[in-house]
Design goal:
Elements (H helix, E strand, L loop, with lengths): L1 H11 L4 E3 L4 E3 L1 H22 L1
Antiparallel strand pairs: 1-2
């Protein structure tokens, strides 16, 4: 999973997470990506119901 996330970060040109030894949190780019992904996911989920 970590390799896939790093690959995605490389393709996007921005880190998605701030990683420390005790926690992981989203960067501003990570929050923006998560919001956009959620919108796209909801649209595809809606299409499955039709």
């Amino acid at each position: 999973m970590s390799r896939r996330i790093r690959n995605l970060e490389g393709r996007l040109g921005a880190p998605l997470f701030i990683r420390s030894s005790s926690r992981v949190q989203l960067t501003p780019a990570g929050r923006q990506f998560a919001q956009r992904y959620a919108k796209i996911y909801c649209k595809f989920d809606f299409l499955k119901l039709e």
